[in-house]
Design a protein that fits this description.
The complex is a heterodimer of chains A (687) and B (331).
Chain A lengths: L1 E3 H4 L9 H7 L6 E6 L6 E5 L10 H12 L12 E5 L5 E4 L5 E10 L8 H9 L7 H13 L3 E5 L7 E6 L5 E3 L5 E3 L5 E4 L4 E4 L3 E2 L12 E8 L1 H11 L4 H8 L6 H16 L2 E4 L2 E3 L9 E4 L2 H6 L5 H10 L3 E5 L2 E5 L10 H12 L17 E2 L1 H15 L3 E2 L5 E2 L2 H6 L11 E2 L10 E2 L4 H13 L5 E11 L6 E11 L18 H15 L4 E5 L5 E11 L2 E9 L1 H6 L7 E5 L1 H7 L15 E10 L4 H12 L3 E10 L8 E10 L8 H18 L3 E3 L1
Parallel strand pairs in A: 4-15, 5-8, 21-25
Antiparallel strand pairs in A: 1-3, 2-3, 6-14, 6-15, 6-16, 7-14, 8-11, 9-10, 11-12, 12-13, 17-19, 18-19, 22-24, 23-24, 25-26, 26-30, 27-28, 28-29, 29-30, 31-33, 31-34, 32-33
Helix pairs in contact in A: 3-10, 5-8, 6-7, 10-11, 12-15, 18-19
Chain B lengths: L1 H21 L3 H12 L4 H7 L9 H37 L18 H15 L3 E3 L4 E3 H4 L24 E3 L4 H8 L6 E10 L11 E11 L4 H16 L5 E5 L5 E11 L2 E11 L1 H6 L8 E8 L1 H8 L6 H4 L2 H4 L3
Helix pairs in contact in B: 1-2, 1-4, 2-4
Classes of the chains: A alpha+beta (687), B alpha+beta (331).
């Protein structure tokens, strides 16, 4: 709402400087979007809350200022000279849809001469952000700015049957609006029609065929009250936002319709001459009464935490235009016309708080029962997972959760992959944000790509976030984790000699091991195999205590190429929620061993395709309960080993809780292992 | 007899001294020690002859032998120390490093700057006794709007243009929706905080993203007032922005609070808008099954992304989502 200060001064005395106003208005709830000009010529651009249609008027703003400065408001003049025949003898009004139109007032003005408005009127409108059109239309806008009630002027001679019908549009009807755009209509749109056809979109914009033209001499001046929701819906459906719709959307009080209609008619005559016919046509089927609201004075400190003296409460409400009657410990107040936002006690308390001053409310700390703050276990677990990954050297990324299925194509996800069950957004804003993400990895790879394109070599990132999957009942929403690693691991390469610097599959595995271990979530295992967008020889399914929960591996060179990633990139995507559900965040002390461990090494020559995990399984099963840990310390293939085989060397650690183990005991276990391994696996023991 | 022993002692000392000086390594020195002080060494031989002495001479001879042993030990230790120092010096010289060479580091992981901000806020409110909870990003329209006093066609819905996935399921437009869930079935006092992603149909530009973060909190109790709201949020602002931080509460409008306020904090000479707050509208309490006559409640919702931009001097909101490591590694 653009408010020229000079115009505002017609309604309330304002001595305050522009700066003082600029400081105070926001403290009254009138946000300032900008101030143009200076001194008396200043124009305030005010941000008006959605519940205050009354502040889309100069009178409404004047009232707030008057309440602050404790001055009186001067309302616009209400006198209207009338003459000639009764209006209803030349025009008729019917409200066929009373649910969407509470009141319709029509004045008829004859003998007008359409011309441009005087310069000072045009200048005022322009300062308020409204383009001057002609003296009749300008009069309607002028009155609208004063009272906040939109008005519309028709050329009565163009109205078929000299009749106004407020009704739903009929299927197939259309209207060319004032902006020259033909608009097909449907029954959801409320129209003003004449005897035959729609002539205006109710509460939004007039029609071109009935507009005020240079030849117009007889005007039907509309002032009506339309249902806010109906206007809001129609305006949105049509993609139109006008001064009228902005006001009607927030609710225009039918009780204020007549006064604005009279002001508008008087202004038309003032600017364009003519005569206002006697007795406006006023169709107002059900009068909307103003209700009194009871305010218990004791409720004010209960809600605000500050005592406001009763006489102050009453004075504030009165200055805002409420009719107030004090009754002991309560106050009964009737809001002024236009303040439909005031419905209950709390609304009045807010008025008191605003004009008492938010800054005068003290700062207190609640004296409620003391409660220990804490984070929900699911949040703690997620934070622990994030911490573990960060400590493992990974950096957290955040990617947008709205995606396009093309990202899955880019990765090469199979048509029947569950990731294809993306949840579509019904009303996407852009073509690249049409679905909710079903997985994190494609977005993360986009982030990798962005970094690589900036010549960044080392990229070690992860994301923890929600993923969504379409399901019969309702979309599923779960927490997921994705990791992407590529390039050198660590800095200070001058001493590392090159070879070991690059990230490997096992760095990826290491990060997962850290995650499972730090969360004490159970035994993490990888088994060969995975989706087609992974390197076939370096793809794995991730299992936690035997339950599959994700995939890990080296990105397939074709997929990598589609993300513009040269070289090797290692990736993981996990159902993090399954990991978090198993997390143990409050560990118990397990004690430290009191007796020494005994180490024994065992080396086996195995076919190259025999997984390490298979050897470990047999070692575990045969070593018995004295086995404490198994550590792989060497993997070797090459001469003198036969081709197609490799050597795996393990350090086994044995320990008893209650005694120092003897060499003989451990030798016994080792003998058992040496016997069992070649029996159960196609391997030979190296001695 | 005793003189003979004394001469032997002198000789052993002289010889050992010379041999120790001649020794070049600790192994050689050990050999010297073994010859002088070993179980079959020279001094042990003299001790063996004590028994042959007249009873009267034995104490004196024994004492002299003990003195000799101490002296030899001292002498050998001194030489051992000399030899050790010599060896170390050579080793140290050989192992000299260029200490100005750069360090070697494993990668250092970091939190995303927005996550760091969220966690900072959570920590402050946990300190103020709040319980931190989370809720889904796909929400029922009923909770996101209706239960927060925003029925269909409410004008306030315009400022929260929403993404829908079905007729009644949508992407939450604010974390306040979690409040509406949490209140149901709980008995005051309640202090709850929540945070996470929200979605609005905003076109992407330097200050808007269709996805953004919010923190929302509320407190319900028998005596909760607007003054408490000011106190709690000002305490928060001082924790977050320093003890001198000033807050500003301006009247605002939210359908779910009455009275409502906009919260700003003075930061580097300008007002930084943090979000909205107010006393929960009685209707919001009523639909959650809380008697608004008995209990009052304040609630607040804080933006994360834009305040973080100002606080950290990040000029464009899109930078948060680009994941440029050159940015992420600065936090």
């Amino acid at each position: 709402m653009r408010v020229p200060l000079a115009w505002l001064r017609e309604f309330v005395d304002i001595d305050e400087t522009v700066d003082a106003l600029a400081e105070r208005l926001p403290m009254l709830g009138l946000g300032i979007d900008g101030i143009e000009g200076a001194g008396a010529d200043a124009v305030f651009d005010l941000e008006i809350a959605a519940n205050r249609p009354d502040l889309l008027s100069l009178v409404g703003i004047a009232r707030e200022i008057a309440a602050w400065t404790r001055r009186e408001v001067r309302l616009p003049p209400d006198d209207l000279a009338v003459g000639g025949a009764p209006a209803r003898s030349v025009a008729a009004v019917e409200i066929a849809d009373p649910g969407r139109c509470a009141r319709y007032v029509a004045h008829v003005i004859t003998g007008v001469r359409v011309s441009p408005s005087p310069a000072h009127i045009a200048a005022r409108l322009e300062a308020a952000g409204i383009r001057p059109i002609n003296n009749v239309v300008d009069a309607t806008n002028y009155a609208m700015l004063e009272w906040g009630q939109p008005l519309h002027a028709f050329d009565l001679e163009t109205l078929e049957g000299r009749r106004i019908v407020v009704r739903a549009a009929r299927p197939g009807e259309s209207l060319v609006t004032l902006d020259g755009v033909p608009r097909p209509l449907d029954p959801s749109v409320l129209v003003i029609a004449d005897a035959r056809r729609p002539v205006a979109l109710a509460g939004i914009i007039g029609g071109a065929a009935t507009e005020i033209a240079p030849v117009t001499t007889t005007v039907l001046l509309e002032a009506a009250s339309f249902q806010a929701a109906a206007i809001r819906r129609a305006a949105r459906a049509l993609g139109l936002r006008t001064e009228a719709s902005t006001r009607f959307e927030r609710g225009v009080d039918p009780e204020g319709t007549m006064r604005a209609a009279r002001r508008g008619a008087a202004l038309v005559v003032e600017l364009a001459g003519g005569t206002v016919l006697r007795g406006a046509v006023d169709v107002y089927p059900v009068r909307v009464r103003r209700r009194a609201i009871t305010l218990r004075l004791a409720r004010i400190p209960r809600l605000l935490g500050v005592e406001v003296p009763a006489e102050e409460v009453i004075a504030i409400l009165r200055r805002l235009g409420l009719e107030v009657r004090a009754r002991g410990k309560t106050v009964r107040a009737i809001p002024p016309v236009g303040r439909r936002d005031l419905e209950r006690e709390e609304d009045l308390i807010e008025e008191v708080a605003r004009h008492w001053g938010y800054e005068r409310i003290p700062e207190a700390l609640p004296v409620e029962v003391v409660q220990q703050g804490r984070r929900a276990p699911s949040i703690e677990a997620e934070a622990a997972a994030r911490d573990a990954l960060i400590r493992a050297g990974l950096t957290e990324a955040l990617t947008v959760s709205l995606v396009t299925p093309r990202l899955l194509d880019r990765l090469g996800v199979a048509p029947d992959d569950p990731w294809r069950r993306q949840v579509p957004v019904r009303n996407p804003l852009t073509a690249d944000h049409t679905h909710l993400r079903s997985c994190l990895l494609p977005g993360l790879l986009e982030a990798v790509r962005a970094n690589v394109s900036r010549r960044r070599e080392a990229v070690h990132i992860f994301e923890i976030g929600r993923v969504f999957r379409a399901a019969p009942a309702a979309p599923e929403e779960r927490k997921a984790l994705a990791i992407a690693l590529r390039g050198p691991w660590g800095a200070g390469a001058w001493a590392a000699g090159g070879g070991d610097r690059e990230v490997t599959f096992f760095h990826l595995r290491g990060a997962l091991d850290v995650l499972a271990a730090e969360l004490r979530a159970g035994e993490l295992a990888l088994e060969a195999g995975g989706p087609r967008w992974l390197h076939p020889g370096r793809a794995a399914r991730v299992l936690l205590d035997g339950t599959p929960l994700g995939v890990a591996g080296e990105l397939h060179p074709d997929a990598a190429a589609r993300f513009d990633l040269p070289g090797r990139t290692y990736v993981v995507e996990l159902d993090l929620e399954a990991v978090l559900a198993r997390a143990i965040l409050q560990p118990r002390f397990l004690g430290v061993p009191r007796f020494p461990a005994v180490r024994r090494d065992v080396a086996v020559v195995a076919p190259e395709d025999l997984p390490h995990a298979a050897v470990v399984t047999v070692l575990r099963e045969t070593a018995g309960e004295l086995l404490e840990s198994i550590e792989l310390f060497d993997v070797y293939a090459g001469p003198p080993l036969p081709p197609g085989t490799r050597n795996l060397a393990y350090a086994l650690s044995f320990r008893a809780r209650d005694r120092t183990l003897t060499g003989e005991e451990v030798d016994g276990v080792m003998a058992h292992i040496h016997a069992a391994l070649p029996e159960r696996l196609p391997i030979t023991i190296r001695t | 007899m005793i003189e003979e022993i004394a001469r032997s002692i002198d000789r052993i000392i002289d010889e050992t001294e010379a041999a120790a000086r001649a020794a070049r390594t600790s192994d050689e020195l050990e050999e010297v020690r073994r010859r002088a002080l070993g179980r079959r060494g020279a001094l042990a031989g003299l001790f063996g002859r004590l028994a042959a002495l007249p009873e009267a001479d034995r104490p004196q001879a024994g004492a002299r032998l003990n003195q000799a042993r101490t002296r030899l030990q001292t002498l050998l230790e001194a030489r051992a120390a000399e030899l050790g120092a010599h060896v170390s010096a050579a080793r140290f010289e050989a192992e000299r490093l260029d200490v100005t060479l750069p360090g070697r580091r494993g990668p250092v992981g970091r939190r995303h700057v927005l996550r760091r901000t969220l966690e900072e806020i959570e920590r402050i409110f946990v300190g103020l006794g709040f319980e931190v909870v989370e809720g889904p990003e796909i929400e029922q329209e009923e909770f996101n709007f209706n239960r927060l006093n925003m029925p269909s066609d409410h004008a306030a819905r315009d400022s929260q243009d929403s993404f829908y996935v079905t007729d009644d399921l949508m992407l939450r437009t604010h974390t306040t929706v979690v409040d509406a869930h949490v209140m149901v079935g709980r008995t005051p006092p309640i202090r709850v905080l929540t945070s996470g992603r929200c979605y609005r149909r905003d076109a992407v530009d330097a200050t808007h993203m269709p996805v953004f973060h919010q923190v929302d909190g509320f407190m319900v109790g028998a005596g909760i007032t607007f003054a408490d709201l000011k106190g709690v949020l000002t305490t928060f602002a001082r924790e977050m922005f320093g003890p001198q931080a000033r807050t500003r509460f301006q009247p605002g409008y939210f359908p779910f609070t009455e009275p409502s306020a906009e919260l700003a904090v003075r930061f580097e000479g300008r007002w930084l808008e943090l979000g909205g707050c107010g006393m929960f509208h009685p209707r919001v309490l009523e639909v959650a099954g809380i008697d608004p006559e008995r209990y009052t409640a304040f609630a607040f919702g804080l933006g994360i992304d834009r305040p973080a931009m100002v606080r950290f001097g990040i000029p464009d909101i899109r930078l948060f989502w680009e994941n440029d490591l050159r940015l992420l590694e600065q936090f």
